[in-house]
Structure formats: structure tokens, C-alpha cells
Specification:
Layout lengths: L5 H6 L2 E3 H8 L3 H10 L4 E4 L2 E5 H29 L2
Antiparallel strand pairs: 1-3, 2-3
């Protein structure tokens, strides 16, 4: 019997490190650094490192909010400086 298909992992809310790296357009080592920093949650299953989809969503939402906040601060700065 072979390994379980990745779709069953996705249904369980788990992603491989390679899937996360591809989705974030970064390398595997960056995914592990994000996990070490606490930004991503990794679980071990049968010796394989898997990332929870929930932690990826949380990271992406934080990134989007950070970008939106920076954009708003820039716009306020431009508006405040314009006379």
C-alpha cells in the first residue's frame, strides 16, 4: 500500500511544506523559519512535516492587514502633507 493521496491531507487541513512554499512563492527553508518563529504551525505525521492550513490562512491575513495598514498610513501621510 502506498502513501495516502495529498487530497486527504488537504481535507484534514494539512499541507506539505512544498505546497506551502509554492503557495507563498518561497523556499522550503523559509517555511521552516516561519514555523520556528511561530508564524506557521507544523505537525509531524509519520515522520513527515505538515503545515496546518489554518496557520497559513492566519499568516496571509496578517500580511494582508499589514499591507493594507501600510497603504493607509502612506495615504494619510500624503493627505496630511498636501495643502
Amino acid at each position: 500500500m502506498g502513501a495516502k493521496p495529498k487530497t486527504s491531507l488537504n481535507a484534514a487541513g494539512l499541507l506539505t511544506v512544498d505546497q506551502v512554499a509554492e503557495g507563498l512563492a518561497c523556499g522550503r527553508s523559509k517555511v521552516y523559519r516561519l514555523a520556528k518563529s511561530g508564524a506557521l504551525e507544523i505537525v509531524k505525521l509519520g515522520g513527515q512535516s505538515l503545515v496546518t492550513a489554518k496557520s497559513v490562512d492566519r499568516l496571509l491575513n496578517l500580511t494582508k492587514r499589514g499591507e493594507a495598514g501600510a497603504r493607509a498610513r502612506r495615504q494619510r501621510g500624503l493627505a496630511d502633507g498636501a495643502t
